[in-house]
Amino acid sequence: MALSSVFEAVASVAQIPREGVLPIVKSDGQRVCLIRSQDRISAVADNCTHQDFEMSLGDVLPDGSIQCAWHGARFDCATGEVKQGPAMSPLPVFEVRVEGDAILVGPVATRLGAGHQPCVASVSGSDP
Fold first, then answer.
1. Where are the domains of the chain?
2. What is the SS3 string spanning the chain?
3. HEC assignment per residue over 110-124
4. What CATH class does 3-122 carry?
5. d(CA 127, CA 46)
């Protein structure tokens, strides 16, 4: 399968606030939460594994995790690993790339132990 059919352009880097999030919907209907933290972009499922609340309403924390706004579950942004309950299952993490200013999201990363294969893309330049 060609890379262009696996990865989909979903947003631009400039659309995500620094240390913030942007909810998007892939063309197949999957809700994704794009996260910009420490000049890195990651993409996780936009629903908490605890009780299906939107992760894009949560906060990005300085330690590279995202906290669900409803019950406080915290997940690693790169691997989806649970860092704090009440969630028991990791967040699905999507493969992600940055090409120029475009953010491309691919398939869900391979599950590894308590999380998924780490997936982050570096942001170059000094955009807003």
1. 3-122
2. CCHHHHCEEEEEHHHCCCCEEEEEECCCCCEEEEEEECCEEEEEECCCCCCCCCHHHCEEECCCEEECCCCCCEEECCCCCEEECCCCCCCCEEEEEEECCEEEEEEECCEECCEECCCCEECCCCCC
3. CEECCEECCCCEECC
4. mainly beta
5. 25
Q: In one letter, which amino acid is 67?
A: Q
The model carries a pTM of 0.90
Residue 96 identity (one-letter amino acid): V
Amino acid at 11: A
Identify which of 49, 41, 21 has the alpha carbon closest to the alpha carbon of residue 95.
41
Mean pLDDT by 10 residues, the chain (128 residues): 72 95 95 95 97 94 94 96 96 96 96 94 68
